[in-house]
């Protein structure tokens, strides 16, 4: 499972979804989907823009959590 920490980061930065959208050029609907962890794929260009604007690393936004029930 991959956790998206966009809501936490925006809260810490006191930045709205609208403001992030305006600064990155990413549609508000797309940011809202990431904010609520409703996305299955993330555009790497979007991720790069968010990291730049928010002054964070990719690993601050995305976290991989191994699924204990998955067998290889």
TrEMBL record:
Signal peptide: none
Residues covered by the HTH cro/C1-type domain: 6-61
InterPro entries from the UniProt entry: Cro/C1-type_HTH, Lambda_DNA-bd_dom_sf
Organism superkingdom: Bacteria
Name of the protein in question: Helix-turn-helix transcriptional regulator
GO molecular function: DNA binding
Pfam family, one: HTH_26
PROSITE patterns: HTH_CROC1
Lineage, opening ranks: Bacteria, Bacillati, Bacillota, Clostridia, Peptostreptococcales
């Amino acid at each position: 499972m991959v956790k998206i920490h966009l809501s936490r980061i925006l809260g810490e930065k006191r930045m709205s979804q609208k403001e992030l959208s305006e600064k990155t050029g990413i549609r508000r609907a797309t940011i809202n989907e990431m904010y609520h962890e409703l996305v299955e794929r993330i555009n790497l260009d979007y991720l790069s823009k968010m990291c730049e604007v928010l002054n964070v690393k990719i690993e601050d936004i995305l976290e991989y959590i191994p699924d204990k029930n998955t067998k290889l």
